[in-house]
Batch of 3 targets.
Target 1
Amino acid sequence: METPKQITEPGRLTNSPPVTSLETDALRERVAELDRLASIGQLTAGILHEIKNPLNFIINYARLSVDLVEEVESILPQFNDHPEVDELNAVLIILKGNIVRIRENGTRAERIMQGMLAQTRADSSVFELTDLNTLIEEFTKLAYQGVRAGDNAFVVSLDFDLDPTVGQIMIAPYEFNRVILNLVINACYAVDERRKRESDAYKPIISLFTQRYDDHLEIKIRDNGEGIPDGVKQKLFTPFFTTKPVGVGTGLGLALSRNIVHELHGGTLSVESEANNFTEFTISLPLEAKQESK
């Protein structure tokens, strides 16, 4: 009868390679980083919930204010003989425009907040008709502002070339926005690393494209950063693989993004890159009726 193999460390057999101190330290750092991110996620969810009520208050009262302005406009013709009626009309037009902008931006903030809150729920994989171009633009800017919040010196040009025929498509928006966030944050990191190495003549650019075809649509996120060596490119989508320093990345973003695109949406996520030149991620999503049934 074969003698059972003894275990000298949790989860490691005696005939397995011994755990090195570097591996142990790296594992501890990774666990600590994931625990820190989990705590930040819980804190963020709490903050977003606290913001939700006053934000709804702003949106609702902006809507009511527009109604009041329109009511005033409806009775103004009764005072056409008043010498200041034209001036009052001009003020009302400006006031109404300001209130409409408040409501539009409040609604935009509400969409972003709902998307972020959905990340904390396990049931966020709900497919619904979504304005893809709007989602891409909003979460690209959100990713950029998030990076800039940690480094005021970071500046990048965002170039949007979004096909207006893309329109609304059936996706899981609260999952898909993670993909955009991950890819844009990675692009920001790549251009920032190149900026630190090169002179002021270098201009960081992140370009985003969408294009609708007969049976699929494509999203491209391209940066003119430091690029990815071929050896690294083959490992990009491996969970926990990262070239970033400890505390900067967990190595889960691209693996999660690929799973969302491949498994959840039935699409593909690929990458092309040249060292010291560019990196371009391409998302291809099928335009099939089966998406509408999810």
Target 2
Amino acid sequence: MSSVSRRGFLYGLSASALSLTLAGCSSSKGSGSGSGGTKVRFGYIGDFNGSSLLAIADHQGLWKKAGLSPDVRVFTNGPIQIQALGAGDLDFGYIGPGAMWLPAEGKAKVIAVDTLTFADRVVAQPGITSIEGLRGKKVGVPEGTSGEMVLNLALEKAGMKMSDITKVPMDAPTIVSALSAGKIDGAGFWYPLIDTVKKRVPKLRELASDRDFPDHAFPTAFVSGPRTSPALTAKVLAVLQQANDWRAAHRTEAIHLAAGLLQVSDASAAKDAEQVQLLTTAQLVAKTKDGTVDTWLKGLTDFFAGTGQLKKSPAPSAYYDGALFTKTAAAK
């Protein structure tokens, strides 16, 4: 499939999933704590990375202090959120590294790096012991996500191409069901959903991980949409930075708050958080100023240009508002 037709397929898929996702979205506990303020429609993925700052902002009263009233909605992946941002149905969202090609393509603006993640895996049914063992096999993958990213990286390292496997596009929750039922041989996706599969398939094999590719960094990020007000972006960014520093200083409490939003046990959220490297706002400012963040982002977009997801790899300044991030931090 060409990169153009592939993008068309992904957006057609996203549009269909979007209507279902928005219909089934849930607001966080206490999401009305900023009641009476400016409404902020914020998407997230149901993991520690995507949920923790939103839960902290609610618990610490940061939304209300900023004059904002959050409406938070859970999504299965980043590309669907970016589709919602483009449609004007969201103001902000959270994406993993595998969706970074979409801001690079001009579909959204990165307003803040969240964490560095190591949650992505290529997994396989018992008996398949290597990436080479997936040749000709059915492999589930949520297209345009970090699941596809880690699968591409693993295939490349093994001297293989996507055409060497039978790729089966499906969303992450469907992958859980398909692996559990033995309907696919492997998958490229992420924790904490992998833990769910392991409970049903105890001998599930992990064939590749983000950590197997030390030449790449895998930043998660918060994004705004093309219709999002710059003034609202500045207010939200200030909230995220305050919540980020609270999380760095209170990791155990942050895990508990995220668990509450996700409606999972603290133990489950803690295991998910093990796949994350937290960075303080001061560290992110320093890494923005010295070009480290640009290096992270350029490494990803160069990779996506190689896979055909991008026609070219743009300068990070085209889609990461590092100047606003550092200005907001300085004003705190």
Target 3
Amino acid sequence: MTSGELTRAEAIDQAIGKVYTTADYYEVGREKIREFARALHDDNPLHWDDAQAQAAGHATLVAPLTVVAIMGAKAQAQLLAKAVPGDLLKSGVLQVDQRFAFHRPIEAGDRLYCDVSLEAYRCVAGADLFTVKTLVRDVDKGVLQESWTSLAGPGEDADRLPDDFEDIVTGVMFSGGDSHVQPLAPTEPEQIPGDSDVRWSTVDFDSLTEGMDLPSRSQQFTRGDVINYIGVSGDPNPIHHSARVAEAAGLDTVVAQAMLTLGTAAGYLTSIVGDPAAFRDMSARFTSPVYVPAHEPAVVEYTAKIKSLDPETRRGLIVFGATLNGKRVFGRCTATVQFA
């Protein structure tokens, strides 16, 4: 580093809080909603059937809660490429936490911009920890949801990766990832809307009790599921399809995407609750990877219970979790639901 040049930490610090937006809107397609729901094993009829979506009060098909993984993840990748020196994807970065605040449902035909900002950065024991905020807004409807994604990377001084790790990644990554990328543009923060007073169709609040266990689900994830999700969401990280890259990054083998396991958890919850639009927030911490063997499925067990209920607002807090072979996949996970 020469005199006058910023250190890596200084360069990252200068980027914190600056908001950028995507150059063009992403139009939510009807078949994309179905394709994404299929990838998440989500059979909620509001994702599939216009008549049932309209009967529930929606204009058309409703997108799964984690659909931001498609357009938002691309905007996040562009932001990190701009804000963080070096190629973060080629450093073995992993997602460790995800939070959502839902304001209005995303529906087919919505034209979405993603506003992204680096919210926080710190270096702990040689590891980089980043939090990126993604705000999704429709051209006509305004802000629909916010999400916060926390990522962990080895940091510039870490030595846990082999010297040829970047070459290993380059050898298996999608080679067209840099083609036709429209640059992010600086923008101002959007005003966040107040709570919606719309009551969507859900299970009866009065049928619920605090401490009540909800029906569990056993879900298989195969290499085919993981690869299909790569195609649907556009996730470029090769630890999800290359055993060589995964092992070089210190993992046992290929791992399922955090957003695949969380998106499937969200579909599991909405299948019990009813309308996905009734969810006000959701958060999850990813504590253990879901390793997916080459020739047999990984079986994840999803469970949930009613943690608390507020009779005045008719809202409930759901605590949910997932295990693989008895080991916790998620840390503390919660979702707030506005019951009818």
